[in-house]
């Protein structure tokens, strides 16, 4: 399995979507001391635990 690389726009969309989920009460997928949803989403992204996929036009 290959690791998918995201461009900055895809990363921003993923982080924004995940932060919105967290702000609405979705369970946090990692242990963290952060309380801001965007910072929690960023830590989850860096840990590689987010279950998002990106569908690109040519794929």
TrEMBL record:
It comes from Halogranum rubrum. The gene is rpo6. The keyword Nucleotidyltransferase applies. PANTHER family: DNA-DIRECTED RNA POLYMERASE SUBUNIT K, DNA-DIRECTED RNA POLYMERASES I, II, AND III SUBUNIT RPABC2. InterPro entries: Pol_omega/Rpo6/RPB6, RPB6/omega-like_sf, Rpo6/Rpb6. DNA-dependent RNA polymerase (RNAP) catalyzes the transcription of DNA into RNA using the four ribonucleoside triphosphates as substrates. The keyword Transferase applies. It catalyses: RNA(n) + a ribonucleoside 5'-triphosphate = RNA(n+1) + diphosphate. It holds the Pfam family RNA_pol_Rpb6. Part of the RNA polymerase complex. NCBIfam families: PRK01099.1-3. This is DNA-directed RNA polymerase subunit Rpo6. Transmembrane segments: none annotated. It is an enzyme of class 2 (transferase). One of its GO terms (cellular component) is cytoplasm.
